[in-house]
Amino acid sequence: MASSEPQGAHPEAAQEQQIDPWSVGAATDAEGNALSFDYVKISQKWNTSLVDDALLERFQKVTGHAPHRWMRRGLFFSHRDFDKILDRYEKGEKFFLYTGRGPSSGSMHIGHTIPFEFTKWLQQVFKAPCVIMLTDDEKSMFKDGLSLEAAHDLALDNAKDIISVGFDPKNTFIFSDIEYVGGHILMNAWEFSKTVTFNQVRGAFGFDGSTHTGKIFFPAIQCVAAFATSYPELWSDTPPKDRSKETAKMACLIPMGIDQDPYFRLLRDNSHRMPRPSPKPALIHSKFLTALQGVGGKMSSSDPNSAVFMDDTPNQIKKKINKHAFSGGRETLEDHRKYGGNPDVDVAYQYITYFEDDDEKIAQIATDYRAGKILTGEMKKMCIEMLQEYVAGYQARRKEVTDEVLRAYMTPRRLEPSGSTTLPDRSES
Ligand code: TRP
């Protein structure tokens, strides 16, 4: 709901940030300049918990793994009941991961793959089954001119991209809503929709009397994918014909961008009211990734210069970073050496923090940049090399994802950890 009008001719008033599942806009100052997102503010407004040191310590203690750098560095900054998932893990109780994507055109960019990377890492740490929903139905409902057929094609294409991130083939189920929603999951959606009033969806999403009814029903679909009863066939070789109360008790952890929270507030408010009640799903929220243009910018599938895309060539990556990545460096070499740069707004530095795991190394880079010892060109060079390596690894895996591999992930079947999957490197183990 892009309700807020652009500032247009009268940019005299500063604007609040606005965040919902379909549009995200940074706050602006009185001159209309985009400001950084205020994540503490959104966490307070929506009453989520911040990922704090106590939680990070507990994570380490319970799992035996260092928290992912994206947790340590605040990219995954907020949660609901993540601590309760740790309690369950400690007790050896089974839970599953659920995340998703609204399929969109063309190749994914790093802003899309990073949340999936994080989910994959959680899967490796917890050896947890993972379900991934492709909301081709949602995209077609919310995007004018996108047919269901076209949205479905995009979903299949995006599924191959998601597989290339490296999810455990034995422990991951990917589905397109258009293909899969029927039977148990649809029964859950109808039951769930019976617990949700129009006032609740209006409150969560800002719908009004002229919103078409597809949009009003859709949230039920996205929500009930967090119920284990939506997929009895994933949890046993001899699936029970019916959804069982026992299965309903399996907990769920949902990694997501903070903009998706309104869906899952609705879910958490109503999950205990299902005929087969489920525990409130736990959530972990990420910030938005910085666009090449810097704060307030948005990585956009339709703007090739806003992001590094997963099908970019090494040379395209180099050119993009050199030409478009906002720099916190000074105008001239002399000034930079004398006064130093600002890593906080430097996009190349931000991207390095996404990929370099070593905290001390990161701190050193920031210090040296501030002191003018590292130049903008040098910062960009480090960034380019990291991105080239990341994208090349991904592209090599993408080549292996045939239609057969795709169908294997998309077949409902009993999920179990492969056993062979180990954490990729020392840094994350
Ligand atoms: N609505 C999400 C999108 O447009 C897709 C989605 C479905 C999702 N289920 C999810 C995202 C669970 C995060 C977690 O991208």
From TrEMBL:
Localisation per UniProt entry: Cytoplasm
Extent of the signal sequence: none
GO cellular component, one term: cytoplasm
Pfam families recorded: tRNA-synt_1b (PF00579)
PROSITE patterns xref list: AA_TRNA_LIGASE_I
Keyword ATP-binding: yes
Gene3D superfamilies, alphabetized: HUPs, Tyrosyl-Transfer RNA Synthetase
GO molecular function: ATP binding; tryptophan-tRNA ligase activity
InterPro entries in alphabetical order: aa-tRNA-synth_I_CS, aa-tRNA-synth_Ic, Rossmann-like_a/b/a_fold, Trp-tRNA-ligase
GO biological process: tryptophanyl-tRNA aminoacylation
Annotated region (Disordered), positions in chain: 1-21
Keywords: Aminoacyl-tRNA synthetase, ATP-binding, Cytoplasm, Ligase, Nucleotide-binding, Protein biosynthesis
UniProt key word Aminoacyl-tRNA synthetase: yes
Domain of life of the organism encoding this protein: Eukaryota
EC number of the protein: 6.1.1.2
Membership in a protein family: Belongs to the class-I aminoacyl-tRNA synthetase family.
Identification of the protein by name: Tryptophan--tRNA ligase, cytoplasmic
Organism in which the protein naturally occurs: Microthyrium microscopicum
